[in-house]
Specification:
Blueprint lengths: L3 H8 L6 H7 L3 H6 L9 H22 L5 H11 L2 H11 L9 H5 L6 H19 L1 H10 L5 H6 L6 H13 L4 E8 L6 E8 L2 E8 L2 H18 L6
Antiparallel strand pairs: 1-2, 2-3
Helix pairs in contact: 2-8, 4-5, 4-8, 4-9, 6-8, 8-9, 11-12
Amino acid sequence: MNNYEEIEAKLGIVFKDKSLLDNALTHRSYLNEHREIALQNNERIEFLGDAVLELLISTYLYSKYPEKPEGELTNIRAAVVRTESLAEESRNLGLGEHLRMSKGEKESGGRDKDYLLANTFEAILGAIYQDQGLDVCRDYIERTLLRKVDGIVENNLFIDPKTQAQEIIQATFKVTPIYEVVKQEGPDHDKIFTVALKINNKQIAVGTGSSKQKAEEDAAKATVEILNKQGKTLN
């Protein structure tokens, strides 16, 4: 099992029920290889953590920005909790080092995959909620994710990549970008999508993600970077 003291030191939380921590750090693939172990995978507790996270971020933004309309608050929240943002926090905490997964998942770089790390962050939050309640979850989020909010708002990073890409492409090329799924990999519960963004049938960039939406956002973000670097030309 995991080194609880090391993980708890990183989280700044000592768990009363260590099995919740075990649960949060167990990927489905690990149990497929170790059917003799009486553990659950982290998908259910991740579901709970996702709900807790949405509540805490929403409450914080609602109080901090009383002048902002619902739409902007929604976009800011989405920027704070996007896959890459949660994965970054998991890396800062070193959670990937403690995540149990199959040998194949490890060999494919699973300990550093954004979507697995993001899921683990939410699973850990669900475990904290189950073990110690909402106030401790709030403190944990304030020490991690909420540090990013000011920078996101000040730099308008809450405008989602697809909206940015569409505005640039329509203003520059007078067309609407097309998103096309070019590849799907993995089982239904753990699928990875690859999506291409095209302008006038020319592929500009590709993106990957655990859903079509996330892959499209990844492709849009890459497209914005490419067009800005090239001076908004297709050459």
